[in-house]
Amino acid sequence: MQLTNKVALVTGAGSGIAKAAAKLFAKEGAKVAALGRTKEELEETVAQIESDNGEAIPLIADISKPEEMQQAIQQIADKWGRLDIVFANAGINGVWAPIDELTPEEWDKTININLKGTFLTVKYAVPHLKKQGGSIIITSSVNGTRIFSNSGATAYSCSKAAQVAFTKMVALELAKHRIRVNVICPGAIETSIDENTQRRDLEDIKEPVEFPEGKIPLTDGKPGTSEQVAQLVLFLASDASSHITGTPIWIDGGESLLKA
């Protein structure tokens, strides 16, 4: 098992990519702190890990709230005495709307959760990671890094582009502490995040583009799965990627090479 005796924090662990990663981390021997805002979803994740003989705890916290994140990470230290891996995955798509219709409040909500939330997750985890080194993996997106044709996704794309810059800055700062920091950029993945996207009045600003054979070349249009992304996250969390830091990795079946 690749993560024996490691302790991992996974944010957004109630569903999707983070849930798949939490379960895979546990299967590979890690103790998992599953963090999110929905108690029932987190308890289900923990129950599934425990039913497979893994060890996990649920942590209820809003990643955009400093006090909640500080307390949650302290709970990990109190429970297991260490923290080795941080998968900062939690985020929202938020409101996608024309720039003149997007409200300051909608902008702030997306930036606060996606970007400030990443900052707070890493900030409060770092003192624990510094004790023995470790790995931080941040979930960005193809949007804002290679793809800019999803009109109206301005706040989301800006938050995702900023996460890549954040990763590179922090990777260099933390290298002397043997803490690696990398960022993944998924394309179309089968998760529930699209159900939480509020799209408004996009018809007039979207540029018409057709992909007759599908917009994901590797799979003829079929989206990837959370489990495929979890395998990438496991690689970056493990010693198999011990010389990789400050690196964005796109996992999209070639989608962002076709669709810019």
Automatic annotation (TrEMBL):
Q: Does Oxidoreductase show up as a keyword for this record?
A: yes
Give the InterPro entries listed for this entry: NAD(P)-bd_dom_sf, SDR_fam
CDD domains from the xrefs? Answer: SDR_c
Q: Which domain of life is it from?
A: Bacteria
Q: Could you tell me the keywords of this UniProt record?
A: Oxidoreductase
Per the UniProt record, one Pfam family is adh_short_C2
Return the similarity comment.
Belongs to the short-chain dehydrogenases/reductases (SDR) family.
Name used for this protein in its record: SDR family oxidoreductase
**Organism of origin:** Plectonema radiosum NIES-515
